[in-house]
Amino acid sequence: MIGFAFGVAAFTLCVGLVATFGLTRLPTARLQLIAFALLAVLLPIWIVFFSGWAMFHMGDDVKILAVASGAASAAVAAALVIGTSLARRIERLRAASARLAAGDLSARAPETGPRELAELGRAFNDMASSIESLFDARRELVAAASHDLRTPIASITAMLEAIEDGLAEGSEYLVPLQEQARRLASLVEDLFELARIDAGSLAHELHEISLAPLVESCLRGFEAEAKARNVRLEQRLEPAPPARCAPEQVERVLLNLLTNALRHTPSDGTVAVALAHAEDEVRISVEDTGEGISAETARRMFDRFWRSDSARSADGSGAGLGLAIARGLVEAQGGRIWAEARESGGARVSFTLPTASQ
Fold this sequence. Notes:
Blueprint: H1 2-23, H2 29-58, H3 61-101, H4 115-164, H5 174-199, E1 207-209, H6 211-221, H7 223-229, E2 232-237, E3 243-245, H8 247-263, E4 270-278, E5 281-288, H9 295-300, H10 309-314, H11 322-332, E6 337-341, E7 347-354
């Protein structure tokens, strides 16, 4: 009979272990813990009933103790297996976070296991990817800024050395020196502007204004340049409610977009500004009949220091910061900005601003 009792205990332990391994297959840690709690309760209860039967038929407390010990051992084994499984997955996540904190930007966490841990792993990996992208962008920013700062500085240095060596008169290089100094000052000011945008310290006072007069004023400012380039300026202004915005910053964005549109529009082309109203936004679009833009250009043209090959060959004076600043100014006012190719050719850059009633 003792052998029978120990056999029942061993069977109970096996049942508990099999059930435990089954618990580790459940999709979430919550379900695993709930199932473990049920196992820890139901298995001993079953053993108590079985023990009562054994006691009734065998009359031996040793047999009851053996069966109860088997049930308790199964519960302990289940706790150890589930706890070890969860701890192992958490340890892998901790190790990945430690590698990331130590500077290994390629560190990634496993995305397997219970649903909560898998979602935590995916969130960690998304965060790590974002951090890696930010560091890559910072390296590109430093490299591009160094290049664009070095060019005017090298030109200024070369002209000053020529004057110092008596190879040229100071008056001969006065105008070029002033141009390079203005270019350097403009680039530094743009970098400070981006720093203020990133820090969220960009000062602006929002007003409720109608955008139609502002659009008309900007277009009048480009009439002489458009005429010199033989480019037509058009405006399509639909009735729209007042927008809540900073007028001087909206004007800066629009002037930047018009400058780019004129730069990429050939002679006999057209640059148009459209004003429209959609739900709780006012949309301004600048369209041109130039060479158009590719999908990659539309995606990256608002990145800092990014310029397409055509933009670089057409005009090397820009540093590639104007559109990045425009995006920062628009988003700081609660709007959004994007670019797309026109079906009839050319490009369209649009930005929105919230209406005053929003």
